[in-house]
Amino acid sequence: MTSAELRAVIVELRPPTVSELVECDHEVLAARHARNALLARLRQVRLRRARMDRQLCRWRSAHPFQVRLHELGLMSFRFLERWKATKGTVERVVQKLAEKADEVQEHARNVERAVEARVTMEQAPLRQYISDLEHLERQKIMQELVERWQTHEFDNALTVFKMLALKREMKAFGYDDGGVHWQALPESFRRVIDNFNCLPRGARSVALERMRSTVQLDGKDARRLMREMGLSWD
Length: 234
Fold this sequence. Notes:
83% of the residues lie in helices and 0% in strands.
């Protein structure tokens, strides 16, 4: 299996993230719905309390004399008495809802934490398997890079081999029997070149392909061939 095929398997197996699953869990959604409904009710009651405060301000501005009499205790007014009673009821409701809101928000957080822990535990084996596959994928990528590099090395070696074989065949300067360049090559390599040049031209391409197909691309054959060609290897 290639690294690309492994990547496709990993993508197919990878589950949604824990946060994504928590967001769509029915227990979490129910807890959040209850929390949001209570918070919405609390906001409405607080808005009602604010409207009552504004009504009182407008009434006091419109009736300064009555306000003064009320403050001195000389006269009571139905609006103020009714406002006071209603405001007391609203304040008690606000306090009760605020306390309940704290409870439902804490409950929602606890549900989220419990679901997150459950999903994390359930996904642990699969995520460990995916982690192992990703480790194997990294190894495959490195192996494929090495193989491509080694193939490139051997292609370079074959190019040099063909160039030296041509120089030997043409008896280029230094490549005759006693030539300095020819004698600098290892005897085994000189023998390979001479055998290659003895082949008919139509068979030479076949020989090169056979060399390519039989070489084990672990770097050793390419390195040996390059060393025998007198090329540096660092």
